[in-house]
Amino acid sequence: MHEVLRATAGSQVFAVTTAPYLLLDCELKIQAANPAYLRATARHPDELVDTLLFDAFPDNPNDPAADGVRRLNASLERVLRHGVPHDMGVQRYDIPDPAEPAGFRVKVWCPVNSPLLDDDGRVVGLLHHVEDVTAVHEILDHAGSLRRPGAIVRHAMLAAGRYKRAVAQSSAAQSRRDQLWHRLLHAGREGRCIDALCAAAVDELPGIDGAAITLYSGGSVQCLLTASDRWARRVQELQVIIGRVPALQAFMTGEPVLLPDLGRAADRWPSYTETAQGMGVASVFAYPLRTATFTAGTLTLYRRSPGGPPRDAEAFADIATVLVLADTDDDVIDQLAAAGDEDDVNLAVGFLAAARGIPIHDAKALLKTVARQSRRRPVDIARDVLARRPGVFT
């Protein structure tokens, strides 16, 4: 084994990370598998080490459409040839079932293959990293949402998959997590998964009396997708009407807004606090529905009595992000995106008019002229203006 591979296999990071990794030499022979990879694939080191990768993990012979070996081999060869990592996106690749000698387990992964280089920059091996996103894929596939932009869906799947993997370190938490996923998957076959999630939040999270999911675009365009009951819907509609509220702040900042005692937030949100308390709200917890690239909306949880946020609330927010992508109609997202674009343009026009002391129609004409000359969309120029990026109108 090359010294670089030996050092990688013997490193503490390789051993203790919860991310599944497989170490390969340039002949695609397995040199090491970390404990997380062994757990993910239900294999023993003696079955894998010194075995050719595709002997250890062949295509499922019962699936005539199986292309895991072909696609993975192409990716690994690409990394060996060019010496740069390759992200395979989402890939179905069934694995042998240790409980059945000739059986296979259906699995969907997000694999990334990376080169290992020596001091001279030559590729001497490969790291094969996978994330198990099978449960998330089942929900999205059933909902027909895999036609959505691949990067967005994949980021959401990875977020949920990584959380599930982290929770797996605790057997008690794993049992609870599995129960929730099975419940939501079942409910999604009969209705909308996001409706089931709001109901589950009230049932599963201690002290929570109501839950709602809202989409946002551009900060002012909002769409209440679902709520656990009529009370939660009325309370969430209040946030939509008033505007400057905890849920909007969570969306804008990408960080949770936690108000265990709403009465103490009166100085910050006087109008909202007074009205919400009048409707029986004592605590509000707003969580952004975010992927690695954008924030789609919020999951807001309500209590009728003061108290802290439940332990598993952020897990529900992770799942809600995935389920929003699965359940939301394309036309809702398209309308929100279009309205958000228009909102950004109008804000930028107003800013330009005030900054330059010119009429609104002149500011709008100026923005369109710059967009045309730079061959960019007006909304992109508008966002540069709002972000105060230098050089936009110089």
Automatic annotation (TrEMBL):
It comes from the Bacteria. Residues 332-386 form the ANTAR domain. SMART domains: ANTAR. It holds the Pfam family PAS_4. CDD domains: PAS. This is PAS domain-containing protein.
